[in-house]
Design a protein that fits this description.
about 300 residues; single chain; binds 2'-monophosphoadenosine-5'-diphosphate
């Protein structure tokens, strides 16, 4: 592949003036984040005098970092791994979405105080609809029970018919199922181990499978949470949160079985779009944001 020239990525870069409004992403590490080009492309496209910067923050320094952003006049920030729980604890006020998930991925710095929000569940829901996999009435299998799974289960709990959380460490799946069952939920929520026997038991009735584990993500590209010798259920749409690479081993298995598939780029873009809209109070240019992510991921 020809390496990108500076010119070819120019539309992803911020323009900085004395008047520029600042936002960014706090992570550790943060250098592989695609959020800076995604948001900067959106600001440029709309002619907004805003810029989005990477903010490498050591976990122990989150309190200083958040106080520093306020002191520096930032409008807000995103928090990514491993800071979402810490941001949740550092803000003055939480949105219902952040409270339900128990983590904050978006900070809005307002004169009256720090607001913590979470756009992951709404981003996932928007992405499911876009992929033509509406969750209503579905029997969902969620693979994994970490931070990403919390947002996914939260989104499905109010729309799907049932949600079964399967995890390598089944105790964590139980804890998540208990926490989500306590909230207002229309779905019945169960938990179990992520093993061949349990997968084969649930595969017969599942019509939506969501992978929230890193299996299949670079550099584990040959791995899959679905055993190779277990037929993937044809009727079960497969949403893989992984977007690097976009074609994962799990998606190949699902596609070979004839199931509908979607990679995780849509959730990435839509969680970003929700944050963009909170900060700027303007509709996000979703297609520009998606093209920016694709440009960066393809390089
Ligand atoms: P995130 O915030 O991205 O969800 P996380 O909180 O570290 O990340 O959660 C990762 C999830 O992937 C967990 O459910 C983890 O299972 P455990 O709870 O047993 O650790 C799951 N996971 C990670 N590596 C895995 C592997 N090799 N096989 C199966 N599950 C794995």
């Amino acid at each position: 592949m020809t390496p990108p020239t500076l010119d070819s990525l120019d539309w992803l870069r911020p323009n900085l003036l004395g008047s520029t409004k600042m936002v960014g992403v706090m992570g550790w590490p943060v250098e592989h984040s695609v959020s800076p080009p995604m948001h900067n492309a959106a600001f440029r496209h709309l002619g907004l005098d805003w810029a989005y910067v990477p903010l490498p923050v050591r976990p122990a320094e989150m309190p200083e970092a958040v106080a520093g952003l306020r002191a520096l006049g930032f409008v807000g920030a995103n928090a990514t791994v491993p800071h979402k729980r810490m941001l949740y604890d550092l803000v003055d006020e939480l949105t219902p979405a952040a409270r339900a998930i128990g983590a904050a991925n978006t900070l809005h710095i307002r004169p009256k105080g720090l607001l913590g929000h979470n756009t992951d569940a709404a981003g996932f829901q928007r992405a499911l609809r876009e992929a033509d996999m509406p969750p209503e009435g579905r029997h969902a299998l969620v693979l994994g029970a970490g931070g990403a799974a919390r947002a996914v289960v939260c989104a499905l709990a109010t729309s799907a018919a049932s949600v079964t959380i399967l995890n390598r460490t089944p105790e964590k799946a139980e804890i998540l199922a208990d926490a989500m069952s306590a909230a207002p939920a229309s779905a019945s929520i169960e938990a179990g181990p992520l093993d061949r026997k349990t997968l084969s038991r649930y595969a017969t009735r599942a019509d939506l499978v969501v992978n929230t584990t890193p299996l299949g993500m670079w550099p584990q590209v040959e791995r899959s949470p679905w055993p190779q010798d277990l037929p993937y259920p044809r009727e079960a749409s497969c949403y893989d949160l992984v977007y690097n690479p976009r074609q994962t081993q799990l998606l190949r298995q699902a596609q070979a079985a004839g199931a509908a598939i979607s990679d995780g780029l849509g959730m990435l873009v839509h969680q970003g779009a929700e944050a963009f809209e909170l900060w700027t109070q303007q509709p996000a240019p979703v297609e520009v944001m998606r093209a920016a992510c694709e440009a960066v991921l393809d390089t």
